[in-house]
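Fill-in record for Cyclase family protein.
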Amino acid sequence: MRITRIVDLSVPVGPGTVVYPGDPEPRLDPHSTIERDGFNLLSVTMGSQTGTHVDAPYHFDEATPRIDELPLERFFGPAVVVDATDLGPRGRITWEPHVEPVAARLRPGTIVLLRTGWSAHYGTPAYFEHPFLDADAARRILDTGVRALCIDAINLDETPDDDHPGDGFPVHHLVARAGGVIGENFRNLGSVDWPDPVVSCFPIALESADGAPVRAVAMQLEPSAEN
């Protein structure tokens, strides 16, 4: 097999990185410089859920695995894109009409990419008004054996605010109980436009953490020519 195309699915981490309300904001400060010390080195401060990241089950359930305890197979594999770009602010991604068209391709080891198009609003207040996954659709996806669900928005569940109190992050709890992982703040899912993409979203091995940033990519593979 050889890689013929790679699409970056990650947002940059820096002062402009969008964070979930109340989460730590990232800081990248020079610690050493070539002029003073002979080498460059950054001091990096950020939350475990910064930028494009994955949640371990431990994020919502203390009795479940932490990010460094999960099998790496959770973060690499064939991907299926669910098209939910028809939705407006706070729209629900449901089994029908969104997931059902690709349901036959869902199986253990598959990574589900929920494409809402909401990454176009990154850096604006509208980013927090994103579509989100319906709990019943999440149950049915998990019933297929899928254990990795990723979205191009800041939250797989609805993000609450004063006007929308939310309903307690039901999808996070469902995925945690199933031992699955959630990826958030993905982008460029519209560029994953070929059949059978393979996705890599390996997290930093933060000890005993609830989640970690990733450099997520989608790869197009083709068989190597026979010798």
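KEY FINDING: The first strand starts at residue 2 and ends at 8.
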